[in-house]
């Protein structure tokens, strides 16, 4: 059995990291057109760096929750019986990894990585970044967060398509289904006859495309679902 899990901001909400589109979400407090596009970075790199520095600090100060831990347990449990999990996240935090997940595909990038616009190198990055900070590989002061901004192509779409093509079950957890191409994965899975499940606090924009749904806080719904999948196996 191959399980494809897509996660969104809702899986990290109970770790204290704001979602984007909930009432007091990030995009209610910050303007994405001024902070999360390549044009915004070209126009005001200082403001964009400050925004992602804040998000990086918040992510590093946060702790994984029971939903992250359950997905790490699912990865181990499936592997132990010869099955597999493909964990694809839209989140740029590293809470899945800190909960013990070994394989995490960050389709929208990672806040704890820097990319150099001069040499293309990508390096782990835990400190604040800025326009005067030099690339550890080539020395140029042209670093940007290794993030997918609006208008840019998500990372590893070929891998995602391949994993989806071989999935026996598709589950979306804590995502509003507002942003494509991630929001389109359920329709792709459906068109292949793959069973689909939504786990969310409230029905997502594309809730009607899912065969099944579990509604409730991720820290409750995800461990219960993982118990079910693993049949009570530890
Ligand atoms: N448990 C489960 N789900 C939750 C919880 C919770 N505790 N809290 C919120 N949610 C759900 C909300 O109901 C909503 O459906 O999580 C979803 C969060 O939706 P968004 O804020 O739109 O986040 P996401 O879907 O991850 O956004 C997708 O948009 O802004 C871009 O690149 C950014 O990756 C992001 C993408």
Automatic annotation (TrEMBL):
Its EC number is 2.3.1.286. GO terms for cellular component: cytoplasm. It is an enzyme of class 2 (transferase). It is found in: Cytoplasm. Keywords: Cytoplasm, Metal-binding, NAD, Transferase, Zinc. GO terms for molecular function: histone deacetylase activity, NAD-dependent; NAD+ binding; protein-malonyllysine demalonylase activity; protein-succinyllysine desuccinylase activity; zinc ion binding. The active site is at 108 (proton acceptor). Its cofactor is Zn(2+). The keyword Ribonucleoprotein does not apply. NAD(+) binds at residues 8-27, 90-93, 174-176, 200-202, 218. Substrate binds at residues 52, 55. Residues 1-233 form the Deacetylase sirtuin-type domain. Zn(2+) binds at residues 116, 119, 135, 138. The keyword RNA-binding does not apply. Binds 1 zinc ion per subunit. It catalyses: N(6)-succinyl-L-lysyl-[protein] + NAD(+) + H2O = 2''-O-succinyl-ADP-D-ribose + nicotinamide + L-lysyl-[protein]; N(6)-acetyl-L-lysyl-[protein] + NAD(+) + H2O = 2''-O-acetyl-ADP-D-ribose + nicotinamide + L-lysyl-[protein]. Gene3D superfamilies: SIR2/SIRT2 'Small Domain, TPP-binding domain. 2 residues (Tyr-52 and Arg-55) present in a large hydrophobic pocket are probably involved in substrate specificity. They are important for desuccinylation activity, but dispensable for deacetylation activity. Belongs to the sirtuin family. Class III subfamily. NAD-dependent lysine deacetylase and desuccinylase that specifically removes acetyl and succinyl groups on target proteins. Modulates the activities of several proteins which are inactive in their acylated form. PANTHER family: NAD-DEPENDENT PROTEIN DEACYLASE, NAD-DEPENDENT PROTEIN DEACYLASE SIRTUIN-5, MITOCHONDRIAL-RELATED. This is NAD-dependent protein deacylase.
């Amino acid at each position: 059995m191959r399980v494809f899990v897509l996660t969104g901001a809702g899986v990290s909400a109970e770790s204290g990291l704001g979602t984007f589109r909930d009432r007091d979400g990030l995009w209610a407090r910050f303007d994405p057109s001024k902070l999360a596009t390549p044009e915004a970075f070209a126009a005001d790199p200082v403001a964009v760096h400050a925004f992602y520095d804040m998000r990086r600090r918040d992510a590093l100060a946060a702790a994984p929750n029971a939903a992250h831990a359950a997905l790490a347990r699912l990865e181990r449990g499936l592997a132990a019986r010869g099955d597999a999990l493909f964990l694809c996240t839209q989140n740029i935090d590293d809470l899945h990894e800190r909960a013990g997940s070994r394989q995490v595909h960050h389709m929208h990038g990672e806040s704890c990585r820097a990319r150099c616009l001069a040499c293309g190198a990508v390096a782990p990055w835990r400190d604040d970044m800025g326009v005067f900070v030099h690339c550890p590989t080539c020395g140029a002061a042209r670093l940007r967060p290794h993030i997918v901004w609006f208008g840019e192509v998500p990372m590893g779409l070929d891998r995602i398509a391949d994993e989806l093509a071989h999935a026996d079950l598709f589950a979306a957890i804590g995502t509003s289904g507002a942003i494509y191409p991630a929001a389109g994965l359920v329709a792709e899975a459906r068109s292949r006859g793959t069973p689909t499940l939504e786990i969310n606090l409230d029905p997502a924009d594309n809730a009607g495309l899912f065969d099944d749904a579990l509604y409730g806080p991720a820290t409750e719904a995800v461990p219960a679902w993982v118990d079910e999948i693993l049949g009570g196996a530890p």
